[in-house]
């Protein structure tokens, strides 16, 4: 495959992955276990399918562990954890979060009884899956073909837009817009971390920390702490 066809194939697969998950979230709305299985299948099958079309692509370097940058990522992750929790306690009283737990329970069957297991999965497995798809595939791999600017914007944009379908009924419009913008900025940050180190572990550390903070808020909203 030539470069242009490779780019078109990659971008198409990434868009298809986001649209497919949006359809699952907004239309099918299965329980969280089924949704997770579908997501794993889509986010792994599309990149692996591309690697079969383009024989010169290898995802092994994305998982090559190096200590370089890990200390910075861990410290940054701790900072993100504190920032998210601090922001919740600071501005949370100004927003109505009741729709979050209501939507989780009615749409995907997440409740106080199973939230612990969901939180562990989201923090560890789901964050790694998203880092592989959006940073490993949609950024580091795509960047080799398109250059930095397009890969940065496209990957971060896909990452933020991907979350729209699952959050449309959670928040008020102002908070929803704030979260989408925040996700785009987070996508840019994750790209930068991975670009510095050439793997997805550094952004995964920060992503896990962010999810841990969000899940901590979830425990508060469900009345578990």
Q: What does this 3D model show about the protein?
A:
It is globular and about 55 Å long. The longest helix is centred in the middle third of the chain and has 32 residues, at 115-146. The chain is mainly alpha-helical. Helix 3 runs parallel beside helix 9 and helix 8 (173-197) runs antiparallel to helix 9 (201-221). The relative contact order is 0.16. The protein is built from 9 helices and no strands. The protein starts with a helix and ends with a helix.
Give a brief description.
The chain is mainly alpha-helical. The protein has helices at 3-28, 32-53, 70-91, 98-108, 115-146, 148-162, 164-167, 173-197, 201-221. Helix 6 crosses helix 8 and helix 8 packs antiparallel against helix 9.
Structural class: mainly alpha
> Which regions have little confidence, pLDDT < 50, spanning 5+ residues?
none
User: Would you count the extended β strands for me?
Assistant: 0
Give the helices and strands as they follow along the chain.
Answer: HHHHHHHHH
Q: The biggest beta sheet, please? A: none
Can you give the helix content as a percent range? over 70%
Q: How far is the first residue's CA from the last residue's CA?
A: 54 Å
Average pLDDT figure: 86
- Principal-axis shape equals globular
Tally of helical segments: 9
Rg over CA atoms: 18 Å
Sheet-strand content, in percent, reads under 5%
């Amino acid at each position: 495959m030539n470069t242009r066809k490779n780019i078109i194939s990659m971008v198409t697969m990434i868009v298809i992955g986001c649209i497919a998950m949006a359809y699952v979230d907004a239309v099918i709305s299965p329980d969280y276990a089924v949704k997770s299985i579908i997501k794993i299948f889509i986010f792994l099958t599309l990149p692996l399918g591309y690697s079969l079309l383009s024989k010169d692509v290898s995802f092994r370097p994305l998982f090559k562990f190096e200590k370089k940058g890990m200390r910075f990522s861990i410290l940054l992750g701790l900072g993100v954890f504190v920032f998210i929790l601090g922001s919740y306690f600071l501005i949370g009283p100004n927003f109505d979060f009741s729709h979050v737990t209501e939507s989780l329970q009615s749409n995907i069957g997440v409740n106080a009884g199973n939230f612990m297991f969901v939180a562990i999965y989201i923090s560890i497995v789901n964050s790694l899956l998203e880092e592989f798809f959006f940073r490993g595939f949609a950024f580091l791999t795509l960047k080799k073909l398109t250059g930095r600017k397009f890969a940065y914007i496209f990957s971060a944009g896909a990452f933020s837009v991907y979350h729209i379908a699952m959050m449309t009924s959670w928040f008020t419009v102002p908070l929803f817009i704030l979260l989408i913008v925040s996700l785009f900025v987070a996508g840019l940050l994750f790209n930068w971390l991975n670009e510095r180190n050439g793997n997805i572990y550094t952004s995964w550390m920060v992503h896990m920390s962010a999810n841990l903070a969000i899940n901590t808020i979830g425990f508060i909203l469900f009345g578990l702490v």
